[in-house]
Amino acid sequence: MIAETPKSTADQQKKKKTTKKKYAHGKHPNSLAALRPIPWKKGQSGNPKGPPKAKTNLMWYIRQFANLTKQELNAIDTKGLTLSQIAALNYCKSLASGDFKFIKELLDRELGKAPEHITTEGEQRITVERV
User: Fold this and answer.
1) Per-residue pLDDT tens for 15-49?
2) What is the DSSP letter of 113?
3) Which of 119, 58, 116 is nearest to 89 (CA)?
4) Residues contacting 113, CB < 8 A, separation 6+
5) Quick one: pLDDT band at residue 1, thresholds 50, 70, 90?
């Protein structure tokens, strides 16, 4: 009779690694679906405001037109240009003629309005919201 040799620990570890427990889709303990609950009801949108609005290329067009002289700006034909291109061209023409009144509006539009800091004394609470 041949005596059975005990299995090595390497064989036992190999067997443990090969046995995998099957989980249903999304039910694995490490699955993201199992880790967090869904914050909205079925059929409700997760993004009610929709995708972010695309910015125009106004600043890019202004940079292109800003390198031109006043004569070159006046020589550009606006036929076939987009509204953003026409707005940038008119903005650069006004800058070339010395009119700087639109700078604040342009910077607010492209970079966002700067936050206003209001200081008060006492126990007054003021909330300022911009729409």
Assistant:
1) 656 567 777 776 777 776 556 666 777 777 777 77
2) P
3) 58
4) 130
5) very low
Asked whether residue 73 is domain-assigned, the answer is yes
The tally of domains found in the chain comes to 1
CA distance 76 to 86: 10
Binned at pLDDT 50, 70 and 90, residue 60 comes out as: confident
Q: Which residues, including other chains, have CB under 8 Å from residue 102's CB and lie 6 or more apart?
A: 91, 94
Range of the domain at 92: 58-110
pTM as predicted: 0.44
**Dihedral, 91, 93, 94, 96 alpha carbons, nearest 10:** 120
